[in-house]
Here is the input.
Amino acid sequence: MATSYVLHDDSGGIIGSKALLNTVPNVNFKNTGFTTLFTVPAGKQFILDDIRSQPTNVTGLTVEPDFTAGCNNPTYDDWAAGYTLFQSATNNDTSLRNLIITNGVYVFGKVYQAGDVLKFQIDTPATATTYLATLRVFGILF
Here is the structure.
């Protein structure tokens, strides 16, 4: 059974619930650089709960990449900064996994505003022959 989260305001009113907000296929974990994952729509706010990775083509993997994610232009690191991706991706294992970090903690409860752009960056690329994955963004949009 999937876990469901509901966000309440101080008066007990429901603000929103966790949902899949975007899917980005074919992210190459062997290349450095930014990938846009989600833009907060006009008139909305957004709380990022997690980013899930599903490897789609992995061969020759020996070292997982380091990543950064967030909405603060130009560094985009206010949610996770410089963490090693540790998802135990074996060659051609396509299981869906939460991004698990081996050093540090995520920032929970940060509210992003309309127009903010969530980006994911590979800081240090994976050591692999091939490493493609689909990223899924989960959060609360209200």
